Every structure is written in C-alpha cells, then in structure tokens.
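Structure first, sequence second, as always.
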C-alpha cells in the first residue's frame, strides 16, 4: 500500500507518494519536477538539490540554467536547443518544453499521476508513478491528440548526488558517443565543449587530450569537470549507481528495445556557469541517441508520434541498502 498526500514543502505545493521503503516528492507547479527520492531504510536522499537558485515561475523557451535545475525533470520532445527537422521555423527550447509548464496531479488507486499538454504540438504527456516495496515504477504515455504526426524523443533527467567512491555499473562494454566535454577526458574539448561531438568509444574507457586513459565508471571528486556520454543500453537493460560510503545503490531497469540509450552526465563542481555549481551524476534513459532533435533526425534514429495515437514506455528505479531484505 502507498500513501499519497498533498503537502506544503518550502512554501510550495507538493505531492508525496510513500510506502515503508521509499518516499518520492513532486512539485506540480514546476514542471512536475521530482525533488526527493528518499530511501527510508537508511534515510538517504538520492537527488541533488540546488541551493543557489530559488524556485520561481518558468518562462517557455528560456534557458534551463536560469532556474532551479535540481532533482528530476522530464525532457520532451528534445534536450538540446535545435530546430525541428520537419518545421525549420520552429525552435525547440533548452531541455524541452515540459519543465516550464505546470502539471496536473491526481491519484489513481495507489498510483500518482501527472499530466501536461504540449506547447509546440498538440499532445498529452502522462507520467504514472507506482511503488512496489523498494522499487519505483515510472510509466509514460504520449497521446498525439491531432491528426498530424510529429517527431520527438524523451529523456528522463534525474540528477543524483555525486559522492566520493561512487561507481556506475553497466554490463559489458557497450558503444558510447561523446556528447560534450569540459574535462579533456575525451580528446580536446574545444572552446564550446563540442570538439569530437559524437566520437565513438566503448564504456567505460576514454582517451584524454593528453593520451591518458580514463575510467568513467569511477567517481572521483578531486577534479572539477562536466561532460556527457550517451551509452547504447546493453541487452539486460540495467544501470546501477553504487554508493559504498552510505551502503546503498540505485538500479535503473528498462527495455532496450523501447529505450535504447542512457545519457550519463558528470557534473563535479563545474556547472551551471552562474551561481553555485552543482555536483551530480545524471543517469538519463532516453529514446534518442543525442541531445539535439535535428541531429537525431540526421542519424535516422528518431521516434515518430503518429496522428491520433498513443505511445507508451517506462522504466524502474530500485533502491537497495544493507537493511533491505
């Protein structure tokens, strides 16, 4: 059984869904943002929280880093700013459009449901959260409410607190591509961080600008950096973030036939450029292979939402600690 309640949190309306193992908190007014994923077995809160940018009303099309960027947002129909490949006059905003819009939340039995209508296209985006012991089930549905098809992709955007000695487990050595880098861990960064963009590597090893070899699976906080890779999800669909200092781990599971990619973004005290920088590891299940929608189009790897249709996908987060049996 789960408890679902509406509560005030730091002067903001929130919804909480909780059982004996997990507590999750969302903010309807701020893009359905999830601000808390707590492991009740050991009291550990997994999500990074932004202490320097107060919550305030968002403006469609504005830069993501002008607002509180903590927690867990949803990115759709894109992540990076780009033109829409089918509508060149349409500019897709930073981190998509869902994070700038207020959502409607309600309960369906033991589940917490959030809904929001699209801005650029006529669709309904629906996220259902269900708890099963120490697992959180995220189910998504995109309903194209018009007769006109449109292209786009989805990515979850959870920012997990980075701790010394953390590690990321991904089965085998799947192919990965460089998205951006301000770390010199994947050759030259270039002035804008996109030198070598989409260069190929194999998880977790990269060769740096000075020819040193780097293991991206090991988290070390001694160097300030930010970079991102996109990994082709292995057949088992499992990504694990281990936190040995707190005796806990977080595992993501999803079907690689439906969600074939996971972005891994490292930000260790470098970004945002204005205000206090954050320290997080983002594990981002995604249906597109890169942040820009026009690049996905050119790679011929882009979901299409047909007219008057519904598309469904989802993933599971499981929280494990030494007290969970």
């Amino acid at each position: 059984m789960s408890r679902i309640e509406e509560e005030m949190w730091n002067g903001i309306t929130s919804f909480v869904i909780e059982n004996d193992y997990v507590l999750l908190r969302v903010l309807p007014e701020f893009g359905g943002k999830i601000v808390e994923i707590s492991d009740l077995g050991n009291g550990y809160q997994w999500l990074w929280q932004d202490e320097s940018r107060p919550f305030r009303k968002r403006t469609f099309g504005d830069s993501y880093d002008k607002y509180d960027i903590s927690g867990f947002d949803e990115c759709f129909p894109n992540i990076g700013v780009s033109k829409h490949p089918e509508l060149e006059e349409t500019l897709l905003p930073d981190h998509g459009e869902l994070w700038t819009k207020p959502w409607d939340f309600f309960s369906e039995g033991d589940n917490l449901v959030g809904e929001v209508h699209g801005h650029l296209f006529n669709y309904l985006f629906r996220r259902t959260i269900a708890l099963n012991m120490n697992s959180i089930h995220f189910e998504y549905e995109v309903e194209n409410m018009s007769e006109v098809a449109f292209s786009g992709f989805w990515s979850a955007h959870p920012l997990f607190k980075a701790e010394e000695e953390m590690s990321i487990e991904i089965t085998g050595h799947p192919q990965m591509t460089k998205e951006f880098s301000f770390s010199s861990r994947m050759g030259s960064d270039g002035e804008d961080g996109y030198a070598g963009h989409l260069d190929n590597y194999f998880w977790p090893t990269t060769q740096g600008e000075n020819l040193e070899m780097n293991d991206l699976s090991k988290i070390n906080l001694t160097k300030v950096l930010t970079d991102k890779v996109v990994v082709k999800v292995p057949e088992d669909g499992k990504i694990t973030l281990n936190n040995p200092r707190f005796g806990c781990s977080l595992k993501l599971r999803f079907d690689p036939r439906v969600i074939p990619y996971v972005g891994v973004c490292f930000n260790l005290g470098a970004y945002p450029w204005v205000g206090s920088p954050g320290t997080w590891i983002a594990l981002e299940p995604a249906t597109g292979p890169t942040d820009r929608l026009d690049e996905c189009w050119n790679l011929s790897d882009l979901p299409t939402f047909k007219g008057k249709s519904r598309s469904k996908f989802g993933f599971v987060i499981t929280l494990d600690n030494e007290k969970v049996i």
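Margin note: The first helix runs from residue 293 to 298.
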